[in-house]
């Protein structure tokens, strides 16, 4: 589909040495090359599930997304696009896992792309993407073909097409059918950081909700404060996925300007958005959110929302939340009780000790464990879940800890 023109400036044009001769020549190529013949050269792609066909289909779908058609050998064409890629598995020795041994937890993709136009111009780009073996692993990848190639080859393909056709290729990647390609586009934009902020802000107005959602997510990953106001506006998007991603992004940025809009989002029609807003308010930690979150804790029909409100109040750690959280220790839902206990431990107010001791006989093991941890955090004692020992300790120390009770 047609994109707004301002999205064509998604990123600055970056070229490696030898990639092109002049900016004018490559801009002209982008305007004139709309039909290409595609060749994927033989290499070791058999180690990749799908092999040459997978690379060819990925390139074709990305080019279609920017209006460039891949044609057959007998069809008219403007240029020939040749792709070469080599994949290498990287591994390391690990101890303990499945008896220890050598596991392939890293990978390298190296590649080259050559575009030869009918009028004699040739553009060549090359790059390498490497993923080091992880320091520890739960992988069972003992064979090279089991290496995480999906985490490297899409980066190489996107980088080549970006340098040949420009920033719109990343917008096309947002709509790609393969998760690995979409994730590679997100990672690439995040790595480019500040240069991507303004174009991503513009993408919040794209006509596809998936693009708007990914743009909001990526702005949160970058964490630039210039995105705060546009993300606040995105809390009113028609799509609940976009509103939810906007709330998550505002949480990552942590700017206090988002507090009041996020408080308003606690009343969103979507439970996903309400939960995301509660988590965002907890992460920002502004005391303005205490009363609205307390209202959710006390009045929400959904135990998921009450639980989220309790967790958020614990994150803010304001003393005003202590009494509502103590009341929530008797909530009908075990998760709410557990979150309330954990929140009280995080706040650290000694008024919660006796109610938390009562939770040690809760029917829920999760609530009991949360109460045990909370009591340890507040009292700096370790009596496990022995309610009798906790009660004796509290009776011996209560007057000293709460002299004005």
Count of alpha and pi helical runs = 18
Poorly predicted tracts of residues? 1-25
Lateral strand order in the biggest sheet: 2-1-3-4-5
Mean of all residue-level pLDDT scores: 85
What is the distance, rounded to the nearest whole angstrom, between the alpha carbons of the first and last residues? 68 Å
Specify the oligomeric state: single chain
Give the SSE string. HEHEEEEHHHHHHHHHHHHHHHH
How many whole angstroms does the radius of gyration measure? 28 Å
Class from helix and strand fractions: alpha/beta
Major sheet size, sense and barrel closure: 5 strands, mixed
Percent helix range: 40-55%
Overall 3D form: elongated
Q: How large a portion of the residues is in β-strands, by DSSP E?
A: 5-15%
* Number of DSSP-assigned strands: 5
